[in-house]
Predict the 3D structure of the following.
Amino acid sequence: MELKVSSLADRPEMLGPVQDMPDTWPEFATQDPVGNAHYGRIPVEFPEYVLFAQDERGQVVAHAYSVPFALHADGRGGLPARGWDQVLVWAFADQRSGARPDTVSAISIVIAPHAQGLGLSGRMLAAMRDSARAKGFTEVVAPVRPNAKHLEPRTPIEEYAHRVREEDGLPYDPWLRVHARAGASIERVAPASMTVAGSLAEWRRWTGLPFDTQGDIEVPGALVPVRCEPERDYAVYVEPNVWMRHRL
């Protein structure tokens, strides 16, 4: 597939098509309050960090969101345990305060459903790296959501993240492997990268599952089980991610 990759800063008229591109996120994964408060602001407030790809017909088939932030500011220095949520908070806090960013964090790379399986994720990751390098950054970090972990929700994330293939020593997980092939290394696990809490009625609506049993509930698309507390009428999902660091 021939692709034309642009940034929203260069093509602001494409904001609508980028935001309207279909995706395959599970419904519950779109209910993280930190993400809901910040994710939609990225194309508007950081358009130069939003890349999108168009096919031969001009249709948007992929987009890549990232944000600049000051990783080495006082009180930070290390990649946070709260992963995706924390880096979004830091990026917008730094924007408000005028702090000088020193690092770019990937936030998402999304491929349209009909274009999946064509290697576009790796191409968008490469474009993100190139864009960060052109802006003068020396590294990109990414709180990676391992895309096959949902098949093993009860496997500890530390064990899963460091599992490698015998034939080449690359990560077992396909999305971690894409990052590793691009030159990234695993920095640490982010054990609480995203948190979704809701009433049992909300979880039933999001998943179609009964959510009437106390304990850990396996939910399609979830990387770890969801903790269900029927007597208290709530369930909580705390998603782990894997921090990967790209030296540019």
